[in-house]
Amino acid sequence: RAAFAAPGGIAGNFGTGWTEASDLRENALWFGGKLSRVLDDVHIREPRDPLAEWRLDSACGRVELLFRPEQLHQARPSVGLF
């Protein structure tokens, strides 16, 4: 699953792999608050290297996104007594 928001009212929500046996899709784009559904499957390509580029694209061509990580974030939860 991938979701993003950008300045200017642009946002997206994409999922893959869990609705393929049905006609349901959670893929959508928002432009200035207006919803635009993406009916085709969106393929999310995540590399093994967390600092490598990763892509989202659809067969219809409406979605072609490239993300470039700027830094590595690692969660280090502290478990135990405070």
Overview of this structure, please?
- This is DUF2804 family protein.
- It holds the Pfam family DUF2804.
- It comes from Pseudomonas aeruginosa.
- By secondary structure, the chain is mainly beta.
- The protein is 0% helix and 38% strand.
- The protein has one domain.
- It has strands spanning 2-6, 10-14, 28-31, 34-37, 42-45, 54-58, 64-67.
- It has a 4-stranded antiparallel sheet, with no helix packed on it. A 3-stranded antiparallel sheet has the order 5-6-7, with no helix packed on it.
- The mean pLDDT is 82.
β-strand percent reads 35-45%
Q: What Rg do the Cα atoms give?
A: 16 Å
Overall mean confidence score, pLDDT: 82
The count of helical stretches stands at: 0
Based on Cα principal axes, name the global outline.
extended
SSE string: EEEEEEE
Helix content range: under 10%
Q: What structural class do the secondary elements suggest?
A: mainly beta
User: Segments where pLDDT lies below 50 for 5+ residues?
Assistant: none
Give the tags:
single chain; 82 residues; mainly beta; three-stranded antiparallel β-sheet; DUF2804 family protein; DUF2804
Can you lay out the helices and strands and say which pair or pack?
Elements: E1 2-6, E2 10-14, E3 28-31, E4 34-37, E5 42-45, E6 54-58, E7 64-67
